[in-house]
Amino acid sequence: MRKIFFSLLVIGLSMFSSCKKQDCSIADAVQRGSKGKEVLSRYVVFEFDGESWQAKKLVQFKKWIKTEQQDLFGGELELFAKGEQSSFAKQKTLGMGFFESKLFGSVSERTQEVLLAQKKVLQGTTITIPLPDSTEEVSSLKWTSLEVLQPYVVSDLSESFDVNLSELPFEDLSENADEDRYRTPEGLEAPFPIEAIHWSGTPKNRFNLLILPDGYQEDQMDEFVSDSDGMIANLMQHSPYKEYSEMINVIRVNIPSNESGVSCDDLEFSLRDNRYKTAFPIACLNALIGTTFNDRFVYQFNGELMKEDASRILYEDVNIIDHVYVLSRSEKYGGSAIFWANQTNHTPWNTAAHEIGHSLGGLADEYLVEGDLCLPHVWFAPNISTLKEDKENIKWSGWLLDETPIPTPEESQYDEVIGLFQGAGMGCTEKAYRPKRICKMRNSQKPFCSVCMERMIHKVFKYANPIEGNFVRNGNTVDIQIASPEKMKTRWYIDGELMQETSSYESYKELDPDKRHRVKVVIFDESAPVLKDRCDLVFAKKSTLSE
Fold this sequence. Notes:
By secondary structure, this protein is α+β, with helices and mostly antiparallel strands. Helix content is 16%, strand content 27%.
């Protein structure tokens, strides 16, 4: 089935002969993705005290990173280093204003009563702001006002918001690594029950997804195991996860909550003692003041404990978790994604692929909800565009056929083409345009469109490196382990010369057994349905082999 799938995609890509498909010469590929390294990763914990966000502490832990530069998305906090010429001085990262605008996105009123209720719902919330993984030291965080977010922000975030990191309490999670640990056959360890439910290989070369439970009590953990098994089985049926399942690990921890359920899931202001403070915030607000705002949004308000639990999962003494998904126990439908993704167990399993599209891919919703606001963050999404007269200025211009009209009519003849369809971002009925009539970001039961698929493939390859381990020489043959070898176009360079090229991975069998050789293998997922940045799908490894 995988070969059939990719054959169809290759045929589809060949239709775009007039499009700007980036040609990537694998002979000139820079070694990428194989330079993983251990770093001391740091983050700042912020807590909402009822009026404003207060910096609580600075935390560090040992983390394995696969790329030299981790993502820093546009937001509201600027990071300042001690040296003015710092390579990351004044870089922006996701901040509290972004979080609040997403959290209260369906609240269309700005009365004093609504504002006070929002602050009560937000009371005690903790979030974590990651600092860049670098040898340079970030010295302070400063709030930079983004006027476009101000109407949606509840807290008091002013120009004077400034945090000196040296004055914060400091915690090093790696200092507790010798405590009693649970261990798995795969080599994972944590201070709580842990298991791998989908395992494809060493996590230092994989995209590692962590599933956390909330609202499941001790006697309900079997239910969580069954629920998470079902959710992941469904996720692996969706593209691109099924095609790249050999590059993905899924890890589950079994930590119970003191109380079952999710706060306000009974439409009352009922706060439940679950581990990560999972709640329906708009349902809480509605219960407080009698409003009827859309209440499907569910989220975890104890981001500090979530980050700490995820950071304590180790492999070879370093943390390897790349992304987090929370599954909470509730009879109410709901899900969302900001810094991580989550849903309730009453929500269809196909929602997981959609929510990870948000949190991992940065994709925006493409459906519309009557009464919802058009929030500013949707304009940063790769699958949302404004109306452009020139196709070249559309974010996904490479996927547009010459004959596709812009804007594209909502007609069945355009169901399978990439165009510019009006309406997206839940509340953006007029100015926002999406790439396809119906994509997974509009309907979770549908597949990703080409634009969103391209984005998600890039995100998997950001963390996963198909080349595993070291070269193995046996006489005149040299081999190396490759994930998804049937998809990987391969070139072998021996002593600087290209000696073998194949459309799928094959070992090289013509070494001189009596000589040392400089060996380099370069692989490229040439069949991947990707037009932009195709060189990001190229990986290489080299070594000198003795006779």
